[in-house]
Each structure stands twice: as C-alpha cells, then as structure tokens.
Design a protein that fits this description.
heterodimer; A: alpha/beta; five-stranded parallel beta sheet; 45% helix; globular; B: Aldehyde Dehydrogenase, Chain A, domain 1; Aldehyde Dehydrogenase, Chain A, domain 2; six-stranded mixed beta sheet; 18 strands; 37% helix
Amino acid sequence: MSRLEVIKTGKLWIGGTWSRSESGATFVVEDAKGQTVARCALASRKDSREAVEAARAGLPAWRDATAMLRGQVLYRAAEMMESRCKEFTEALCDAGMNLPAARREVELSVDRMVMLAGWCDKIHQILGCQNSVVGPYHNFTIPQACGVVVVFCPEEPPLLSMVTLIGAAMGMGNTVVAAVPRSAAMLGVLLGEVLAVSDVPSGAANLLTGDIGPLLDPLGGHREVAVMVSSGLSKSARTTLRLAAADGIRRVHTIPWTDADWADDTQTCSPWFLDQFVEFKTMWHPAGV
Amino acid sequence: MMGQSGDTAVAVPSEGWNYSPAPERTRPEIDSEYGLFIGGEFQAPQSDRTFNTINPATGQRLSRISEASEEDVDAAMAAARVAGPKWARMKGRERGKYLFRLARRVQECARELAVLETMDGGKPIKESRDVDLPLVAQHFFYHAGWADKLQWAFGGRDVKPRGVCGQIIPWNFPLLMAAWKLAPALACGNTVVLKPAETTSLTALHLAKLMQEIDLPPGVVNIVTGAGDTGRMVASHPAVKKVAFTGSTEVGRRIMEELAPREVPLTLELGGKSANIVFADAAIEQAIEGVVSGIWFNQGHVCCAGSRLLVEESILEPFVAALRDRMAQLRVGDPLDKNTDIGAINSSEQLDRIRALVTAGQEEGAILHDVQSTPLPEQGFWFPPCFFTGVQPAHVVAREEIFGPVLAVMSFRTPEEAIRRANTTPYGLAAGIWTDKGSKIFEIASRMDAGVVWCNTYNQFDAASPFGGVKESGFGREGGLQGLRAYVR
C-alpha cells in the first residue's frame, strides 16, 4: 500500500528552540531533479538579531564550562552525526552530489568534529605561553573565547565547511550564529538536530538558513558580535560585511579555502586556523615575598 | 621621593622642602630641517611643504619637518617594494643581526634619544630615559632573535613575510611605538613605510640615521612624515600588504572603512577607558602607587591608562584621601628636570580637548580635585594631575577617553558589580586588579573584557609581553610570540 511521505519543515534553531522565521517567509528546497524536498524558514534581519541575543545569553554557560566538558559535547555531536550518516548523505545527494562524494564528505565531517572536540582542552597549551619579562613578574598569555562568533558558511563543501566553522568556534568556547546558504539549508537543519541532542546548552549554537546577503549588515553591525568568519562570500558581500563591522571595530576573518583545503586536516585543525576564534589575554603579577 | 633618611632626625621646614633644579644637561644635535627617509637617504619632499615641530614645554620651534605628498608616499612605497624580495630572502640569522646592531646603536645613543623624545613630546626625562628607551632597545633585541626562529614560532607552518607594511604611529610614545611596529615587521622579513605622528617625528628620524649607520639595506625602512592626510595615503596605498595603526578609535574606524573593499590584513591598537579595580583587601599603599602610575604616567597620554578607578565602597573615603595626598606630591614642570613627575601636554589641540572634557565633567556635577604643589609654567602646554569623585557611569569623564592626567573615581560593593562596571564600556584594552586574594585575582582577571590585565601592578610593558585590546580598543597583538602573527602569511 502506498504511503504518503511526511515532509519536514526546516526551521531556524535559535536559543535551543526550533522556530519559523518571524517574517513567516520560507523557501523551497529542491533536489537536483527539481522535486520539492522541503520548505525551509527564510531567516530575516530580526531573526538574525534574535540569534545573536540567544548566543549572548548562552555565552556564560558554554564559555565557562570546563574545556573537557566542551570536548565531550562536541564528541557527542560526532556520535550523533555518525548515527545519522544516511540522512546527511541523502541530503548531500539531494543537493546534486554523487553518492561516493557524499559519503566521503559525511565521513570527513564526522571525523572533523572528532578532531575539533579533541582540541578543546589542549589548544591553550599550544597558543598560550609564559613570557619572560624584564623584572620580577609572572607574565603569561592565554587564549580565551572571543564571545559571540558569526560564521558565514560557504556553499561548497556544504557540510564539511559548516561543521569545521561551527566546531572550531564552539571548540574555542565561543557561542556561534551560523548563517547557512539556501543550498545547504537542509544540511544545516540536520546539523542543528544533531547538536540539539548532544547536550549543547541553549544558545551555544544557533542556525539561520536562507539568503546571507540581507544578514550581513545586521550581523556585522551587531555590538554583541565579537568576530565574523566568512568563506565563499562575493567581493561585494565581503565589503558590506567589513563596512558593517567597522562601526564597532569588530574582527572579520575571511577563509579563502578551496574544497581541497577544507578536506585537509592539517590546515583545518591547525592552531593557526583556530587562533582566529580566540582572543589573547596577557596577565601580569609581581613575584616577591 | 624625598624625606627623612635613616634615623637622622631632620627638621622639616613648615613650608616643606623645595627641590633644587636638576636639569638633564645632555643636548642632542637637532637639524634645522629634516627630509623624508626614503630608500636609505634623507630626501627633500616633492611637495616642498614643511611644518614646524615644537617643544610643547616651551612652545618654541625645534625644527622643520617635511610633509610627504602623494608622490613622496609613492616613492617610499616603491623603495620598500624594491627592497622587499632581497630582505625576505635573506637568511633569518642575518636579518636578525641587523636588528641586533640597531638595538646596540639605540643603547649607545639612548641618552640623546631620550632627551630628544622629551624635548619633542613633553614627557618627563625620567620616563623617556628609564622606560621608553630601554624598551625601544629591548624590542629590537627581542625581535632580532626571532628572525631565524620563525619556523618554531609557527609550528607546522612555513611562514613567509607579507611584503610592504604601512605603519602609522601616535605621539604618546613616539620612538617606542616605532620600535613596536618596526621590530616584528623586519624580523619576519617585511619592509616598511612608517608614518610618525606630526607632533613627534624627531626620534623616528634620528632612528633612521642609526639605520644608515648600521648599514641597514636601503628601502627596508622608509619614513614619511606628515599629518593625517599622509597617514591616509600610507594606509590606503595599493602597494601595502599589511596595515598597522596605533591611535584613536575614530581614525581606526576610518581605516577599517577605507580598507573594507580590499583583502589587506589590519591590526589596530586604539583607545581605551581602562578600569583599575581596588578591593578592600588590597595592599593599599601599593594600590595608591599603582593608581598614580596608572593614570599620571606620561601625563595620562596612554591608551591603556587606568582612567576609571573603581574602589570598594568600604575603603572609598580613606583611599580617596590618600590619593589626594599622593597627588599633591607630584611635581609638574620642566620635562628635562630629573625630578619632574608630570611633563607638558603634547600639543595645544590635546590641551584643548582635555580642558573641554574636564569642563564637561564639572558641568555634569562631578567633583574635581586638583590640589597642586608646584605652579604650572607660563610657557607651553600644561594640565595639572586631577581626579573626579561623585562620578556617575553615564558621565562623560567616565565614558570618554580623555588622554590626559584626569582620573574618574567610582565605587562598587560586590565583585560582580566591579566586573560589570569595568566591562561596561565599548573599549577593552587593559584592566588593573588590586587584591591580596589569589583566587579573586584569577576570577576577576579571566572575566575582564581586556587584552592586558595587570594584577597588583599597572602600566608594565615588555617586548616579550603581547599587548593589544578587544572590542573597540582594536585587534591584534604587539610584542611577544603572538605579536609576530600579523607579520607573516
């Protein structure tokens, strides 16, 4: 007997809850053959501001959790991804990828999350240091979370780049707002579902799907955003983002990576990539009795 | 400080002891006019324009400085670009040896440079001699040693220089800021076009003479003098592959906007309104000294000045009384006198700005305390050390960077309130914490929105210690391992 398929509505994941866009706007996600796969919420400017506020509210709980715990939460996310490999693979195939390539990207993405999970309680030992100053002082420099990080995910490679950017931002103790382009929307929803069952505290990760262009200004100019990391934006979008960020002197990093770069573990899990997600603090204290 | 020494009883006259003048007698040679330093030579500007540099303590002209035009900046960029490949290819060890040589020459000429710094900028000789110049030499020494060790600084990466760096520096620590900018850039194999502040070009130009003496290859460092327009030309020049700026948040924002359409890496060291937090359990006398050096060091012309003092309410009254007594001891006057604590304000523009903000503070109802033991000189630009009490967080003196010897005193009741008030500012450069409790230090320090946190000390600097801010105080670090990051790709 034939059965009517249940089609999922893709929603925004903000502050630990799934919501439609406040604007009510949606867009249709089609597979490569033009069949409707799902309808997704189209994030508005207001949604993006709400996501930032949720990320700000979620910051203390996530940033102040022990690094070991953050690592375990990200590892949990990898476990949840592994068990949903089929869904991720199908979503990649729906977007036009062939099956072997889709499988490979899912495997790489799960493994990437595992690698990033392992960095949480070690990065400080690589990026931080003790400084030998002239005088009787203890002086050391430690990497700390920046705060709210916005990542603008590229279209390609859709899942691997999203996992890398979100995992890196969260791994360094930041809370994150991810702006996911239409073409990767269902993957974003799936990743959100994974994070939602991985003990990620509310607001630590927030996902916006739809058109990135209208979100550049409100996200780039938001004073609660500390850092913006983008990849795959056009030159004019990069300019818009940097102009918006100039008002609050916010950090903007551009990742100019190709598909091969995203697949390269040594680059993507390098401290010299992760240092874009930390802020250095130097502390002095006199030594003496 | 003077006073009774040992167990000898000395009768203090009722009017107190007077200091005899103790002038620094070294006089550096100052040329009547300085050209632009391009391609290893001093050159007359193509603009044919010059401007005066004056001694802010007397108002008298020291020399005439060239104003670089667009053509001059082009020439400097071309020289830096031509010198780039050879300098980048040179063995790190050899590049480092040039910097070691430069460090040595700075040490040999330290006294002349310190006097020159004081004459051109107004800071007390004891600061330029004991703080600025030793740090300048240390910056070159420290970074010299990195030049052949970059593969260890960035494990797993084969780093390369970025190319021509455009660097723009402020007038509060003229030669030290030049060293902060030049040393890491050169150690990493970049070449530089440096733009000093228009009121304080002299020591950078004398540093250029030392570069000639140590045979630094021509074009590796080029110095173009001028005001804001020249700075804009340097920052936005198409040949520039990296821009570093230290100065006001307002100008930093303009540079960000200017560079927005381009993929040029940028580091900014901007303004601040740093909190100095004193808990009731602090060593009070040390805290008083820390507050003094926090706000009155270098006339308060310090981006990380501890310009907001937050005192735990239970000790507010005695602390303010002790601070008032200590402030009255500060000697304002001839910067070349070795006993001077507070020198001249750097320029009449800056003096006007300080006066306007202090007037605004009074108009908003804050109470000004400016006891002065020494009369202010008649010539030059001066402002006495002072502080405000009765300050509300919304007051202009609690929010705006004054960049002068003006402190805003406020109080708090709980550590949570101290943290919140300290972080309630768009800036995030530095913070000071005074308490004898170790666990409190770690907790408060880790929660400060600041790039530098001084615990039971303030205004300490070191070439090995990364410096820089968060939020609107800018991004990137200068000094230490982390400071190299901006100069490699």
